[in-house]
Known about the structure:
Elements: H1 3-9, E1 18-22, H2 26-41, E2 50-54, H3 60-68, E3 77-82, H4 85-100, E4 106-112, H5 120-124, E5 130-132, H6 141-153, H7 159-169, H8 173-187, H9 195-218, H10 222-234, H11 239-261, H12 266-272, H13 280-312, H14 317-329
Helix pairs in contact: 1-2, 6-7, 6-8, 7-9, 7-11, 8-9, 9-10, 9-11, 9-13, 10-14, 11-12, 11-13, 12-13, 13-14
Amino acid sequence: MDSLTFLQSAAKAKARPIYVLHGEEHFLKRRVLAALRALVLGPEDDGFGLTTRDGDKASWAEIHDELETLPFLSTRRLVVVDRADPFVTRERPRLEKYVAEPSKTGVLVLDVQSWPANTKLAKQLPETATLVCKAPTTQKLPEWCVAWCAAQHGKPLSVPAARLLVDLVGADMGLLDQEMAKLAIYAGGNSRIDTSDVDQLVGQSRTENTWKIFDLIGGGQTGAALTLLDRLLDQGEEPLRLLGAFSMQLRRLAQAARLYSQGQSLPDALERAGVPPFGRRNAEQQVRHLGRRRLDLIYDWLLETDLGLKGSSQLPPRTLLERLVVQLARKR
């Protein structure tokens, strides 16, 4: 079951004896765990019914004992095995037996990265017990932002504002949630959050810094661009947020280049691509600096960097962003 679907109906669900949370979106895992805690332990949960163990160190004996031992002043216990992949590998035969005859008082949660559907253990569990914690695609994230902001923060978010927010912040759902919380307060008595609110609160300083970096890129000043990038990271800027801001400008440049190749003048192409008037002169220089070959590779580079920042690469986030800047800034 998709975790977002579970979260919509968690308050009315019936607790199962075992749940598996799998996927790489930690924000969704935190929300699902909070929902399971409320479901299993109730609104008056005082923490005595919750046990969390690390999958690297947990043994089946201690986990089983926790599941079978009632907490003080509670009717059920919730036992969470965090980073449970090694635990599942070690204890698979015992888990298979446990699923067939689970505890009547304990609820087991396995938080894993990988959960192959073709294993005997996976096939034993119903769909409602296997919760997929995976972020929506980038194309669907604005739609999620609109629904989430209204439901969780009590303020409607316009679709254009949601698109701009995703462009600026990136695809990290936790960061998006934090910005929506701030935007709901910032919008105050306004009936909804619009693009002007997002631009003012989220985008202004980030856009300014992004333009500075791209001005340096357009001039082929690789060293200066890297120095500014490092300063922003040292000041606490999140790598995914910076990539989101980079992505917005790079997509505009790539779109303008396509329109230009189709016969439009470069100023008109930049206008249609959404480059603001104050930035068009420098954007022309950036398009000419990058050239058609690099502009054709923009989407591949952005995807590679985005996946790397989310864990597919062993390189540090700073190195991944520096590599992208070097690819863009070096002279042809």
